[in-house]
Amino acid sequence: MMPRRYTDCMFAPRRIQHCRVCGASTAYRVPADDNRERAVCGACGEIHYENPINVVGTLPVWEDQVLLCRRAIEPRHGLWTLPAGFMELGETTAEGARRETDEEAGATIELEGLFTVLNVVRAGQVHLFYRARMLDTRLDPGPETLEARLFREHEIPWDQIAFRTVRETLEHFFADRRDGLFSVHVGDIG
Question: Which of 70, 91, 131, 167 has its Cα between 20 and 30 A from that of 17?
Answer without folding.
Answer: 91
